[in-house]
UniProtKB/TrEMBL annotation, chain A:
Transmembrane segments: 6-27, 39-62, 74-92, 99-122, 134-154, 166-190
Subcellular location: Endomembrane system
The protein's name in its UniProt record: Electron transport complex protein RnfA
PANTHER family according to UniProt: INTEGRAL MEMBRANE PROTEIN OF SOXR-REDUCING COMPLEX, ION-TRANSLOCATING OXIDOREDUCTASE COMPLEX SUBUNIT A
Family annotation (Pfam families): Rnf-Nqr
GO annotations of cellular component type: endomembrane system; plasma membrane
Keywords: Electron transport, Membrane, Translocase, Transmembrane, Transmembrane helix, Transport
GO biological process, one term: electron transport chain
Topology of this chain in the membrane: Multi-pass membrane protein
InterPro entries reported for this sequence: Ion_transpt_RnfA/RsxA (IPR011293), NqrDE/RnfAE (IPR003667), NqrDE/RnfAE_oxidrdctase (IPR050133)
Automatic annotation (TrEMBL), chain B:
Membrane-crossing segments per the record: 25-47
Disordered: annotated span: 1-20
Signal peptide residues on this chain, from the entry's feature table: none
An example Gene Ontology molecular-function term: electron transfer activity
Sorted UniProt keywords: Electron transport, Flavoprotein, FMN, Membrane, Phosphoprotein, Transmembrane, Transmembrane helix, Transport
Bias kind Pro residues: ranges: 1-19
Domain FMN-binding: 119-221
GO-annotated cellular components: plasma membrane
The protein's name: Electron transport complex protein RnfG
Keyword set includes Cell division: no
Automatic annotation (TrEMBL), chain C:
GO cellular component labels: endomembrane system; plasma membrane
Descriptive protein name: Ion-translocating oxidoreductase complex subunit E
Function of the protein: Part of a membrane-bound complex that couples electron transfer with translocation of ions across the membrane.
Record text on subunit structure and interactions: The complex is composed of six subunits: RnfA, RnfB, RnfC, RnfD, RnfE and RnfG.
Stretches that traverse the bilayer: 21-40, 46-66, 73-91, 97-117, 129-151, 171-197
Membrane topology of the entry: Multi-pass membrane protein
Places the protein is found: Cell inner membrane; Endomembrane system
Record gene name: rnfE
One Pfam family in the UniProt entry: Rnf-Nqr
HAMAP family per UniProt: RsxE_RnfE
Length: 192, 236, 218
């Protein structure tokens, strides 16, 4: 069976949304989703790092497989992701200081984002080829951004409404995430 | 362990933000940590290797015995464009891995192979059994799926659906290069031919994934295996 | 000696109660929600995470005088990844069924913020013994949190607990509980329960304090 790149993209974006169906990247989802103007840049920065990490992991996996060193996969993935984040940070600082200031505080956080390592691990486990990996990381990143933006929009509206004291904070966010997740279940079956 | 202390602990007037550790010390420490970690990983890999291989073998045997009930032992093979060879190591590009199940007398009881197709939530992976005598598929087991519990997993328990796999016709055509009739999942209650699968009403997409998975895998595998059946008739 | 014991106990209890990683700090959410569809999965994940946590904190604490602060995060991540790889192979050797059920989330223990947080904020500053005790407490707290979710989701979503049927054949399972939304709802429910309980306790504590004061004056 061969999944087309478009199928993988749509699946990672909607039916198997990274945050709402696979539970990847929940820490930033709960932490950075209070305001729309921080949620969107965070999503874009994570997508970019996911893309870089996915490409690096693809190359690295080829190298490790040819040397039969599969047991070093996890440790090399995490090191390469940490380095990629550092590199992105440095390049941004030099080339586009405005963007760097907008994203600066989020970049170090991305190293410990499950979604980034998740992309690398899942694409290896599913034996995606280059194009499929590309679609998977872009779809996953777009899905993460979508979930973050939706959540931030809901929470901004929520600030104007009267929420009982005990439900404020994480509990409310989790229940909202559950409702969003229910909605995203409706996308299952697309493309099959 | 006795690496020299970084100078910052002894000299007070250095501003706290300036890098105070010499590069050599940093590299030495990272090297030390990497060595320790490397030793631990290699030790764990070597120590668990035989147990992991044994576990994988048992899991595979159990899965094959489930779809070919009369099998008592298995053999692993690759089907390539040129014929059938005993499997060893990773699957080479272009080859298809399949398993032959042998009964108590060491005679071929059936052939098991993996198929996969997109289901409702994600890819549904199955292992199906092909019996050369009747040229039919006689059962399948689930390898992995993320289908909705209680709906998609009916494919394993629904009696009407499982009745499709008593003798699902996968005969090859006269040229032996494809199935004579494509395996197809049809709407519940409209099955008329022995190569059709009657879908479960309410779980049509998962049922269709099973049919597509079997069809795709059988179309690729059977034309390669059928002409070389003699080479796998008895247990090697 | 008594004081030392009390401190050790406090060090251990910190992770279970006051700073419970799941309910109080809301850390390490990804595995918390993803693998808790059954109690046994939750327990295994908790034990695996605890193992990585204890080993990493021990090694970080042992090496705390050697690791330069400029490269400490990279060092911690390498150490954590090492023990996760070890756990990964150990679980494969113990049970492939369990390995398949937990899937990629075993390897994703690497990015569990609880572990890096403990290594950075605690283990790098204290002696190995204290670090291990604190890590064990944190691990136990994490496991309890996972179990709280896993049991509820398994009981309602499947009608079983640790695979043992509870309600007989007539029980119609709430499938939603073992689906992704169920994870969010159950954790949200637990947090609501704790918040409600804390509020009640505070309310109850206020008059009680006043009464005690009044008693003293009289």
């Amino acid at each position: 069976m061969h999944e087309s790149a478009a199928q993988i993209f749509i699946s990672a974006l909607l039916a198997n949304n990274f945050v709402l169906a696979m539970f990847l990247g929940l820490c930033p989802f709960l932490g950075v989703s209070a305001r729309l103007d921080t949620a969107f840049p965070m999503g874009v920065a994570t997508t970019f790092v996911m893309l870089v990490a996915s490409l690096c992991a693809f190359g690295l996996n080829l190298l490790l497989s040819s040397l039969h060193l599969e047991f070093l996969r996890l440790i090399s993935y995490i090191v390469i992701i940490a380095s990629a984040v550092q590199l992105v940070e440095m390049v941004l600082k030099k080339r586009s200081p405005t963007l760097f200031r907008a994203l600066g505080i989020f970049l170090p956080l991305i190293t410990t984002n499950c979604a980034v390592l998740g992309v690398a691990l899942f694409q290896t486990a599913r034996e995606y080829d280059f194009l499929q990996s590309l679609a998977f990381s872009l779809g996953g990143g777009a899905g993460f951004t979508l979930a973050l933006v939706l959540m931030a929009s809901v929470r901004e509206r929520l600030q104007l409404s009267d929420v009982p004291g005990i439900a404020q904070g994480t509990a409310m966010t989790l229940v909202l995430a559950g409702i969003l997740s229910l909605g995203f279940m409706g996308f299952a079956g697309i493309g099959s | 362990m006795n690496a020299p202390q970084p100078p910052e602990s002894s000299s007070a007037p250095v501003p706290p933000s300036a890098p105070t550790t010499p590069t050599a010390a940093m590299i030495r420490t990272l090297g030390l940590v990497a060595t320790i970690c490397g030793l631990i990983i290699v030790g764990a890999y070597q120590g668990s290797f035989s147990a992991v291989q044994e576990n994988k073998r048992i899991a595979l045997e159990r899965a094959v015995f489930k779809v070919i009930p009369s099998a008592r032992s298995i053999g692993e093979y690759f089907a390539t464009a040129n014929g059938v060879t005993p499997a060893s190591g990773d699957t080479p590009p272009g080859a298809i891995r399949f398993y032959a199940g042998y009964d108590a007398d060491g005679k071929l009881a059936g052939v098991a192979a993996e198929g996969a197709a997109k289901g409702y939530a994600d890819v549904v992976r199955i292992l199906f059994a092909w019996i050369p005598e009747c040229q039919c598929v006689t059962g399948f087991g689930l390898v992995s799926s993320r289908e909705t519990p209680g709906i998609g997993d009916k494919i394993l328990v629904d009696r009407d659906f499982l009745a499709n796999f008593k003798e699902l016709d996968v005969r090859l055509n006269a040229d032996m290069n494809a199935l004579a009739n494509e395996v197809k999942t049809v709407k519940h209650g409209t099955k008329t031919q022995p190569w059709q699968i009657d879908a479960i009403s309410g779980a049509t997409i998962t049922s269709r994934a099973v049919g597509r998975g079997i069809n795709e895998a059988a179309q690729a595998l059977l034309p390669r295996v059928a002409p070389h059946l003699d080479s796998i008739r008895t247990k090697p | 000696m008594n004081l030392g014991q009390a401190k050790t106990f406090d060090e251990f209890m910190e992770g279970i109660w006051r700073q419970n990683p799941v309910f109080v700090m809301a850390l390490g959410m990804c595995p918390t929600l993803a693998v808790t569809v059954s109690a046994i999965n939750a327990l295994s994940m908790g034990v695996a995470t605890t193992f990585v946590l204890i080993c990493s904190c021990l090694l970080v604490s042992l090496l705390r005088r050697v690791i330069p602060k400029e490269v400490r995060i990279a060092t911690y991540i390498v150490i954590i990844a090492t023990f996760v790889t070890v756990t990964d192979y150990a679980i494969q050797a113990i049970s492939l069924t369990l390995y398949d059920a937990l899937g990629a989330f075993i390897q994703l223990i690497v990015v569990n913020c609880v572990i890096l947080g403990r290594a950075e904020a605690h283990a790098s500053k204290v002696s190995p013994l204290t670090a291990v005790i604190n890590a064990a407490g944190m691990g136990a707290g994490f496991t309890i949190g996972l179990l709280a979710l896993g049991t509820v989701r398994e009981i309602f979503g499947n009608g079983t607990l640790f695979g043992i049927s509870l309600f007989g054949a007539n029980f119609q399972p709430w499938v939603i509980m073992v689906l992704p939304p169920g994870g969010f709802f159950v954790l949200g429910g637990w947090l609501l329960l704790f918040a409600w309980w804390a509020k009640r306790r505070d309310k109850a504590a206020l008059p009680a304090d006043k009464a005690a004061e009044g008693h003293q004056h009289a």
